[in-house]
Amino acid sequence: MSEIGRYIAAAQGAAQARPRALNPPSTGVPPRRQTLVAKSTNVNRLVAGMDELVRRTVGPAIHVAIIEASDLWKRGWLIRNQLENALLNLCINARDAMPNGGNLFIENPQSLVR
Known about the structure:
Blueprint: H1 3-22, E1 39-42, H2 43-49, H3 51-58, E2 62-67, E3 75-78, H4 80-97, E4 102-107
Parallel strand pairs: 2-4
Antiparallel strand pairs: 1-3
Helix pairs in contact: 3-4
């Protein structure tokens, strides 16, 4: 088999395996669903509580600075776990974009989203 033929066979195998990986066979047990309910949350406190996790995740070569919102709008209606996951993913992306180190600023600006 030629080199191109091996690549084509590998791609076809991956294409056939992918749907099985995304949709595993049913076990007869319904999936557990998480109720997503937005709650009033102190965003400053949530981000400050993630400080150590963020610092360990990005490593010592990246300086992390957290800039909190003023007292006026420090609470927000949100789903806590989703904000934590989004913030951690953004920090990982920033780390990967700064292989030689740098500064990471996490700011909680006052904004209204409807």
